[in-house]
Amino acid sequence: MTHRTWRHPALRFLLLIGAAALPGCGAILSEGSTAAAGVGGAAVANAVGAGAAATTGIGLGVQAGARAGLQYAQRRAHGVAQSRIAEAAGPLQPGAVAPWQIRHRLPIEPDEQGEVTVARLFGGGQLRCKEIVFSVDTPPRRAFYTAAICRDGDAWRWASAEPATERWGALQ
After folding, report:
1. What single DSSP character describes residue 30?
2. Closest to 160 (Cα-Cα) out of 142, 172, 143
3. Least trusted range by pLDDT, from 26-40, 97-111, 114-128
4. 152 and 130 in contact (C-beta within 8 Å)?
5. Fewer CB within 10 Å of terminal CB in the chain, N or C?
6. Could you give the C-alpha distances from 114 to 35, 54, 61, 95, 117, in angstroms and in order?
7. pLDDT at res. 21
């Protein structure tokens, strides 16, 4: 490739997206990446001869799509983490402690681990639930959170609507 080929906006945009998929590049997936997607989409639109209004619209559309895609992926990653914690806590009796961990396939969230304990049992009849306390261990710091899990057939599932806005923000 010549130096001039690297100046093509579409190629730079594709390289940015490819870099985001590399392990350890999770930091790229942030507000900056959605802005870059918008700029990249606008650059591609401009390169193919779209007018200023169309270029702006395309750039904003690509940016919104990238943001929505990232938030969807983050919600899925949080759901997997919640499932791992519920699986670890499900068989425990109050006071017992078990480890949990999550290793994400995509680097959009950091891998995490910690411990979980059951604080109390509640519910009745077919509605059997547990209040849990779990840690997220990020040496040298350890953070603690509470949640509820409930039995759904053979599985234990996350039952908290707002587990910890500090931990997962609005993207639980």
Report:
1. S
2. 172
3. 26-40
4. no
5. N
6. 34, 49, 39, 16, 10
7. 45
- What CA–CA distance (Å, rounded) separates 115 from 107? 22
- The token pair at 116 is 């979980």
Q: pLDDT tens-digit profile of 86-113?
A: 999 999 999 999 999 999 887 778 899 9
Rg (CA), the chain: 22
* Buried residues in 117-144 as b, exposed as e (16+ CB within 10 A): bbeeeeeeeeeebbbbebbbeeeeeeee
Helix (H, G, I), strand (E, B) or coil at 172: coil
Look up the pTM and report it.
0.61
Residue written as tokens 């995490």?
Answer: 112
User: pLDDT tens digits, residue range 52-96?
Assistant: 666 666 667 777 776 777 677 667 777 888 999 999 999 999 999
Amino acid, single-letter form, for residue 136: V
Look at residue 167 in the predicted model and tell me its pLDDT.
57
> Where exactly are the structural domains of the chain?
5-75, 76-168
- Cα separation, 160 vs 89, whole angstroms: 14
